[in-house]
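Lab notebook page, bench 4
Experiment: in silico fold of construct C2
Operator: M.H.
Input chain length: 367 residues
Purpose: comparison with the prior construct
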Amino acid sequence: MDALELGLEQLTFGAIADVETDYAELAEFIDILKPLIRQPSVVGNEDAFFRILRRELEEFDHLNVQLYHGVLVAQGSKPHDLFLSAHIDRHGLLCTGPNEFQYAAFIAGNRGEVMGDSVSEHMLNTIENRFQGQRVQAHFPYTGTYLAQGEITNSYICPERNNLIFEVDGLEFLQPGTPISFLDRLQIENGLMSAQLDNVVSAAMIIYLFRKGFQGTGLFTAQEESGRSWRYALSWFQRERLTTQRLVVLDTSPYATREDADVQQVTLRHRDANGEFSEAMTQELVTRCEELGLSYGFKDEYIATQNETRSRPYPLGRTELGRIIVATEGEINGTTLQIPTTDYHTATETASLSAIAGVLKLLMSYI
């Protein structure tokens, strides 16, 4: 019995018995997630992952699937009922010179889209020492074909470039422009799921929903970690001449401790640094959580409470949704639905199976 089967067996026998759900369905979702986690999708180099998603989605006869620059769109028979969006890029490294490796999201070519107050940038100092000993693998940029493996021996912030710089053993031969992903495997133990979950877990949820008969629209966007994904999503809405107040952006959400994360199964928001989300759409999710017996919390309220005792205020963050709201003056709006996690932006980001089951249960209520 492997770790995944053991984890699910523990789950079935009561590890998260407070969640009334069909654990066979949770196992089915994990079967979708597990192989996706193994596929590289370093920010700015998502082409191979787009092809994998497209192949998965085109197996469903009821879907219309179209790939555009920076966004893959799948639509059922009621495409305007609900729009779900999830970014597919994940953090990784990029070779930028002879034996030189930088954090891909914040290389010079991407800095123009980030504004200094994103959660990712804020956390650079927190995560800079988390990568020693991390195995990584290099891939051809477009095809995703495997090149070689290496190991991170050191990482530090370069003050001149304001980016994480990595020293990697075993990849000295790589050419500039080569993406390098963290060697990632799904681990399930003691009612917890760990991997680089942000944000492949949300992409897997949308695929799962379509498999179960969801008839709305799913958007899979590129380059969220460098602040660009909203442009691709917005371009699609403009191309289709669509507006909506029912856009729900799926993601993970970091908490300081496991105890803080476990206060809720579902993380919601009233707003981000850009402004207010749709009150009606947010309340709709609240009502469904209460009807389904799911615990929920608001991340903006959590951050405000934490900032009362912090010497350095934590940013609200600028989400994909918030940027779209500002760009359209509110004509496109909605809310966010997030999975509470710890060890954010590492290869061991962790979510409880209770939270995974809870978010799935909430989303399944739209089928």
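Observations: The chain has two domains: 3-89+186-364, 93-182. Residues 11-22 have pLDDT under 50 and may be disordered.
Next step: discuss at group meeting.
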